[in-house]
Design a protein that fits this description.
The complex is a heterodimer of chains A (440) and B (300). Chain A is built from 14 helices and 17 strands. Chain A has 440 residues and is an alpha/beta fold. Chain A starts with 21 loop residues before the first strand and ends with a helix. In chain B, 36% of the residues lie in helices and 11% in strands. Classes of the chains: A alpha/beta (440), B alpha+beta (300).
Chain lengths: 440, 300
């Protein structure tokens, strides 16, 4: 069975909500839509206070190169445009909309039937991705249309679809494979046209055998799409690791996947592209797993963007034994410090960790046991990077390849001394990056 | 002679001969490759504190000494950490400019009491990291995070985190105003300000730029940018920008009128003697305060 070669870990899978079909979360009375829902520059507001908006109407326009459009997830009246605290507590510009009814903007197909035939050509598909504000829904929220602007001297050999879902707890991708396989396949067809790749490979980890069986059955109708079973190992869903696992190609340090003829997208992104290309529907919803060991009411929700996180959690019921609430997976997600924040594109889960799970153990000195070195999927020496970051020796950080760190957290995961290895590496990576940029 | 004695004798002779040869080589090599260094560098370095704090902008004290000797001027070269610039000027045969002592000032009063914690931080003890993952335990996105990056940066053991308030406290006796803490603070809470006569100085103990209501929601000691202090200031030393008042220490005459006006108590006046008059006569207080710093100065 295929997998990446260096490092990797096996965290407890805890796919607790896997049996629960995706439910629609009710539309809230008011939504707060951040103008930055993606990597890159903020989008520019296109509405004013008092404006009437419809579902899917453009409210934030992408003007910078790396930026994505933002659309209204509801119909109603713009109450205000002001800075609102995001889930980390930092204020970002947002459009607050009072919801009235559920009226969709013109030109959006709201029917649920499968539309198979793709009528758009390569450029039209890329333009549609941009217009519909498609971003990578695997977590980074990188504007997708930028990925498809392939330099003229490069050729795409493989379109890789990341359905590994290697993060514990998260089950929305799994549910999507079971419930939306047909739509996903049409989305991938559109992506094949946009990228010019001859073949698409869907990488699924072996811990989801029913998903693999179902996807393989559906993919049989599409001659350029193959499903590949991967050995379960974290971080299989990381871009470079997935490329290694599926194509055995190594992306050179500091380069993008296009360097080795690959484009990687998440399966959720494929579904979003299906809706954009076939139904002209922008991203106005996010698929979110609400899970945790103490949660009784496990859910896979389809939530409108801009819904208050607190409303979702209250609908599920916050258990008494909750130590930490995380947005994203337990490995790479971030702890939520402001529960009155709002959902954004790519918020793939809300995890309620128990007190015991969330508590970090006492930190001891580094034993030089080398577990972090063994676990690092990028072949780095995390304990050294941690030490250099702490000593602010950023030149050495650079020499030891800190910029190649993908921040997967495999190093911190196994550390017997509970050292905050990744935390310090993030600081060092930030500083080293600034140092390198200043040099240019 | 027994074989043992011969062995010892030979060994001693060989080692001695090698020593002699090496000494001769060393003598000539040291002559040939002699590094001529300006003796003033050592003299200048002697008058520097030797803590290598980097506050002067150079890698260390000796680097500053080398730079001064090379440039042969004191313009733009200054040890902020208590180096004897007058003595250095004497070594160099130059005049030293008079400078007033500076001190690090922590401009945040978001103590555990004023800004109660809403979440608990449990991660790497580094402000640099903490600021990247959340706004702060009190949710103030501007205030001190209390992880002690400044404590680690200080070469003079002059700044420590107070256990009850969770805020750093500067030891004025030890602080030399080198600015290492201010440079490392990711929130720019620490500022290097004039120490003031007898250490008396007035400053706004807040850096929150949010609107008043938003700032007060997280911290009862936050500046709301009402501008009362700016109106009260007779020296135009106070500016209010982005909902935040700032006292220009080069213009401030330590009259403390602003401190009396501030409805929040965000303006701190430190090291002043306790006020004698009852709070019923506020008009006279600032005048008395204005005199206070000038009196000891005339005695000196």
């Amino acid at each position: 069975m295929k997998t990446f070669k260096i490092g990797g870990i096996h965290p407890e899978e805890n796919k607790l909500a896997k049996a629960n079909p995706v439910e629609l979360f009710p539309i809230p009375k008011q939504v707060t839509v951040f103008l930055t829902q993606h990597l890159g520059a903020p989008s520019v507001p296109q509405v004013q206070k008092g404006d009437k908006v419809k579902v899917g109407q453009l409210i934030g326009k992408a003007e910078a190169f790396i930026c994505a459009n933002v659309h209204s997830p509801v119909s109603g009246t713009v109450a205000k445009i002001e800075p609102v605290a995001d889930f980390l507590g930092y204020k970002k510009d947002a459009v607050v909309i009072d919801v009235e009814g559920d009226e969709w903007a013109e030109g959006i197909d709201t029917s649920t039937e499968l539309k198979k035939d793709i009528t758009l050509n390569k450029q039209e598909i890329i333009d549609r991705m941009k217009a519909c504000g498609i971003v990578g829904l695997g977590g980074a929220c990188f504007p997708t249309h930028v990925k498809y602007m392939v330099p003229p001297d490069k050729k795409v050999d493989y379109l890789l679809i990341n359905a590994a879902e290697c993060e514990p707890y998260i089950t929305v991708d799994y549910r999507m494979m079971l419930e939306r396989a047909d739509e996903v396949m049409v989305g991938i067809e559109a992506m094949l046209i946009a990228s010019g790749a001859p073949v698409a490979l869907i990488g699924v980890e072996a811990n989801k055998p029913d998903a693999i069986a179902h996807l393989t059955k559906v993919a049989a109708n599409y001659k350029n799409i193959q499903v590949v079973e991967l050995k379960t190992k974290y971080p299989q869903g990381a871009e470079k690791q997935l490329i290694k696992a599926l194509t055995n190609r190594n992306v050179p340090n500091g380069k993008l996947p296009i360097e080795v003829g690959c484009i990687v997208n998440n399966i959720a992104t494929a579904f979003a592209i299906y809706e954009a290309v076939q139904k002209n529907k922008p991203i106005i919803e996010t698929f979110t797993t609400v899970s945790g060991k103490a949660v009784e009411n496990l859910k896979n929700y389809r939530v409108r963007i801009g819904t208050c996180i607190n409303d979702i959690l209250n609908a599920v019921g916050i258990p008494e034994d909750t130590g930490k609430i995380i947005s994203g997976g337990p490995m790479m997600g971030k702890a939520i410090s402001n529960l009155t924040a709002f959902t954004v594109k790519g918020m793939s889960s809300l995890l309620l960790m128990t007190e015991k799970e969330s508590k970090r153990g006492e930190v001891y000195e580094c034993l030089r046991c080398g577990k972090c070195v063994h676990a690092c999927p990028m072949g780095l020496e995390p304990y050294m990077l941690h030490a250099f970051s702490e000593l602010q020796r950023y030149e050495d950080c650079e020499k030891y390849g800190i910029m190649n760190c993908i921040e997967c957290g495999s190093c911190s995961f196994g550390c017997p001394s509970n050292r905050p290895i990744l935390d310090m590496i993030r600081v060092g990576k930030n500083k080293t990056g600034a140092m390198i940029r200043a040099r240019k | 002679m027994t074989p043992t004695v011969t062995t010892i004798l030979y060994a001693a002779l060989i080692i001695g001969a090698i020593g002699m040869i090496a000494a001769v080589i060393l003598y000539f090599v040291s002559k040939a490759f002699k590094v001529i260094e300006d003796p003033r560098i050592d003299e200048v370095a002697e008058h520097l504190p030797g803590a290598n704090c980097g506050g002067c902008g150079f890698a260390g004290c000796r680097a500053l000494a080398e730079a001064i000797v090379k440039a042969n001027t004191l313009d733009g070269y200054k040890c902020p950490a208590g180096g004897d610039m007058k003595a250095i000027a004497a070594v160099m045969g130059l005049e030293a400019a008079e400078t007033e002592p500076m001190v690090a000032v922590v401009r945040c009063n978001g103590s555990c009491e004023n800004a109660p914690a809403k979440v608990k931080y449990d991660s790497a003890l580094s402000c640099q990291f903490a600021t990247s993952i959340y706004a702060g335990e009190s949710a103030c996105p501007f205030g001190c995070l209390g992880c002690g990056d400044c404590v680690k940066a200080c070469k003079f053991d002059a700044i420590h985190i107070d256990d009850t308030t969770g805020l750093p406290v500067v030891d004025e006796e030890k602080c030399v105003g080198c600015g290492a803490c201010a440079k490392t603070c990711p929130r720019k809470v620490i500022e290097i300000r004039l120490k003031g006569k007898l250490g008396r100085r007035v400053f706004v103990s807040c850096v929150n730029k949010e609107k008043g209501a938003a700032a007060r929601k997280n911290c009862s000691a936050a500046c709301i940018g009402c501008g009362k202090c700016a109106k009260a200031c007779p020296f135009e030393a106070i500016t209010v920008e982005n909902n935040l008042a700032y006292i220009d220490f080069t213009k401030c005459k330590s009259c403390r009128k602003c401190a009396g006006e501030c409805p929040i108590g965000a303006i701190h006046a430190v090291n002043f003697p306790p006020k004698k008059e009852a709070p019923a006569a506020p008009a006279e207080k600032p005048a008395a305060a204005a005199e206070a710093p000038s009196n000891p100065a005339s005695e000196q």
